[in-house]
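dude i think i finally got it to work??
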Amino acid sequence: MKVLVIGSGGREHALCWALSASSLVDALYAAPGNAGMAEEAQCVDIAADDIGTIGAFAKSNAIDLVVIGPEGPLVAGLADLLEADGIKAFGPSAAAARLEGSKGFTKDICARYGIPTAAYGRFTETGPALDYLQRVGAPIVVKADGLAAGKGVIMAETVAEAEAAVADILDGDRFGAAGSEVLIEEWLGGEEASFFALVDGVTALPLASAQDHKRAGEADTGPNTGGMGAYSPAPVVTEALAGRIMDRVIEPTVRAMNEAGCPYRGVLYAGVMIADGVPKLLEYNVRFGDPECQVLVLRLRSDLLPALLAAREGGLKHFDLRWRDEAALSVVMAAKGYPGAYGKGSEIRGIEAADAIDGVKVFHAGTKAEDGKLLAVGGRVLNVTALAPTIAEAQAKAYRAVDAIDWPGGFCRRDIGFRAVG
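look at this
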């Protein structure tokens, strides 16, 4: 098969790395790709959000399957465009992608189908939102309704902080159209985990568990980011808890989307908060997590391609996946200043030394090759990922690989996996 992967981040590099190992793949392309993905795929200079050009490329090159990595093209309808042209796409339709494209849409689905989640209010005007804040108090969570690159969630510890966040989103135009509506949600206590399932419109197949680290600072302090590291398996997601998440969250959502006339096909990522063994949905993503995808592909024994095809074609009912017993842990190396303003163009050395460590794979995110040098061109730049018998051993191996990389312009958290390691 000819396969095209859409995107340029660490998640897409991980997908390319896994797909390149499939005996079913004859040709692998990435649009636009990055310096690391060029080792596994032929990179084509098409932006991930240029859906018309992607469609034309897929058609003219007889692509058999397009694997859509990021959420933006999914919400914009790339899967619909491709399928209309007779090209198979892995990823939900635009209508189904509203599960991530509109947090309000998802919360209303939860309310209608009894899916456990935080209490909430939806607002398009500042006055009513501020009145609601005065009634419910703090701590509280303020969210931009639409896509905001993982930065549209403000954890406000005081009413004043929440009021400032509401004004910033609704009046300050901080997130553009994504902030035309805000959600104000109950602050949930507990431990957060990432739960993934492949969905074929009817059947949901759970994947291995994972846990990520959203905050920029150690001990989960500082601003929210797109993710600073992840590990799998997540000890908090026991077999019994995974069953509860499937029964109470994933499967009711699959039924809800069918009844709404927009069956969900693709990977469904539920961010859940767990307290006293009870999971509550925080939000949905309609694609693989980043950096969770990186740890999942290292643990996956099965060929990834048939699994993606089964999700697209309704074949998950009798499908199974095999996973390695080992643990995987990924450390994100980001440009200094991230998630705020950061510089671009600093040189990175030592990737080969890190990759040479047994069980380590460095996935590229914001990188570019230029004049024989590897340059940092994004916020999150590298995902240093390790496989080992235990999470503690994977953590030690990943940080040994981090220390082999020479990049003065970057930083990372030094405590990824701390909940599991203790």
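The first helix runs from residue 10 to 20.
im so relieved honestly
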